[in-house]
């Protein structure tokens, strides 16, 4: 029961932060699951893979409600989603395979570097200036592949990468966020399948795991995050979000240092 409450609390926190700060829940879920799985004594070689796979599986559920909300407000550029999805699917699936070949310590270091990158973006308020049009099919396939690979390697829905990409290509911020939410679903589908298949049959996985997806953690996270994400969105209209983003950026730095420390 204590584990269920732990995962529910993690899901609730991830949902609020996702709605409040407009970040992917994976930025919270992956490091917290890493620490939780380590504390439970899971096999070290599988800890990061389980955290990444479980994070992407949770996005399968949470992204649907987000996409529906943005679609109702006309915030999703569906032609862009259709053009980038093939590259997203290929890149994410390949990224999951690559991650399965890498050690837990390497993935910890890679994720920590990514946290430093996101934290710096938040701390400095870095936003790309729009200066070009959406590329054609080959360009979108390539962009989708890159976004998919990195999203799979760090267990996120891709918003940290796809929103700047879309804004850089003259997409209004409101539509970039909504379109990125829609892009998160194929990332979650391909990533979930990739981590499930690449972890299938591995020894020393914890009970209730399907490949690199830990079922108990997934159930708790999804149950809570789906309920608390709307609360976070509501709070975004009343709280000083810019100040909160800077505080959260410092927290990301702390988590990154902690992950690097644990790797050595």
UniProtKB/TrEMBL annotation:
- What GO cellular-component annotations does this UniProt entry give? plasma membrane
Question: Per UniProt, which keywords does this protein have?
Answer: Cell membrane, Membrane, Transmembrane, Transmembrane helix
Report how it sits in the membrane.
Answer: Multi-pass membrane protein
Compartment(s) where it occurs, according to its Swiss-Prot or TrEMBL record: Cell membrane; Membrane
- Which Pfam families has this protein been placed in? TauE (PF01925)
Q: Which domain of life is it from?
A: Bacteria
The primary location reported for this protein is membrane
Q: What is this protein called?
A: Probable membrane transporter protein
Q: Give the family this protein belongs to, as stated in its UniProt record.
A: Belongs to the 4-toluene sulfonate uptake permease (TSUP) (TC 2.A.102) family.
Q: Which residues cross the membrane?
A: 6-35, 76-99, 106-126, 146-168, 175-197, 209-232, 244-261
């Amino acid at each position: 029961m204590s584990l269920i409450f732990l995962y529910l609390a993690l899901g609730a926190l991830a949902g609020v932060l996702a709605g409040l700060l407009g970040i992917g829940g994976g930025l919270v879920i992956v490091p917290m699951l890493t620490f939780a799985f380590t504390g439970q004594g899971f096999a070290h070689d599988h800890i990061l893979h389980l955290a990444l796979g479980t994070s992407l599986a949770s996005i399968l559920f949470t992204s649907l409600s987000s996409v529906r909300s943005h679609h109702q407000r006309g915030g999703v550029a569906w032609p862009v989603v259709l053009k980038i999805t093939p590259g997203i699917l290929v890149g994410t699936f390949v990224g999951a395979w690559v991650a399965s070949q890498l050690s837990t310590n390497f993935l910890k270091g890679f994720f920590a570097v990514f946290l430093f990158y996101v934290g710096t973006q938040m701390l400095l308020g870095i936003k790309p200036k729009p200066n070009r049009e959406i590329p054609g099919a080959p360009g979108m396939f390539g962009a989708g592949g890159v976004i998919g690979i990195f999203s799979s390697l760090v267990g996120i829905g891709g918003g940290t990468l796809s929103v700047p990409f879309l804004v850089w290509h003259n997409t209004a911020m409101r539509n970039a966020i909504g379109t990125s939410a829609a892009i998160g679903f194929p990332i979650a589908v391909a990533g979930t399948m990739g981590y499930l298949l690449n972890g299938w049959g591995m020894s020393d996985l914890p009970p209730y795991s399907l490949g690199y997806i830990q079922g108990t953690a997934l159930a708790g996270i999804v149950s809570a995050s789906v309920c608390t994400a709307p609360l976070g969105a509501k709070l975004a209209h009343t709280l000083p979000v810019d100040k909160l983003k800077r505080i959260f950026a410092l927290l990301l730095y702390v988590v990154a240092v902690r992950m690097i420390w644990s790797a050595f």
